[in-house]
Amino acid sequence: MTDHAHGDTPRLEAYFCYDDYTDDDLDEMPCVRAPADGDWSGFAEMAEENEDDIGTVVIRSGDHEVRIEDSLIATVQNVCLSAVPKLIGREHVVVRLFTVYGYVRMDPEGSDQLVLGDFIEPVRLPRAELIPALVEVGRTYLRFLESIRADDDDFTITIDRVRAQLEAADAALAGWDGT
Questions:
Q1: Does 25 fall in a domain?
Q2: Fewer CB under 10 Å: which end of the chain, C or N?
Q3: Into how many domains does the chain fold?
Q4: In this structure, is residue 2 part of a structural domain?
């Protein structure tokens, strides 16, 4: 089990990357990081080949990294957004993975959040950084969906659901004291 450094805590970073099935070598399939500038133009072709929006939510703090590889739709909705009110309420959260057997578990421990599960080495991350970072991943993913998937009728309900979950997560953050 790993811990973040107490005292001068390194800044936590969270983002998603998107599996690129356009390459013929699926053994070395790259996961392309979401652009910080919101330029999704390079993702349109990838989205055509990646119908289930498979990718990875990555959380880094210091030398520690959590990678949740699954459907981004499921991970963003269940881990990054719907879990936020429960995390703020210091509840234990267990989320089943969507495309493979397994789960992600998040438990409050003082000022930390213990994150563990199948395929995830247990790591303690600072709650005050983790929870807002998860919401930002959700916000970025919503912009991605609105940019790349807005014209796809199969994603209309998903976009509306993610938008509603983001609003609920933002409302929970607005009333949170950061502890």
A1: yes
A2: N
A3: 1
A4: no
Name the β-bridge partners of 73.
none
**What does the longest C-alpha to C-alpha distance in the chain come to?**
49
Main-chain phi, psi angles of 17, to 5 degrees: -125, 160
In a domain, residue 3? The reply is no
Q: What's the predicted TM-score (pTM) here?
A: 0.91
Report the helix count and the strand count for the chain, using DSSP H and E: 5, 9
Q: Please write the tens of the pLDDT for every residue from 70-108.
A: 999 999 999 999 999 999 999 999 999 999 899 999 999
Residue 96 contacts residue 103 (beta carbons within 8 Å): yes
Which domain, by its residues, includes 145?
12-174
3-state secondary structure of 20: coil
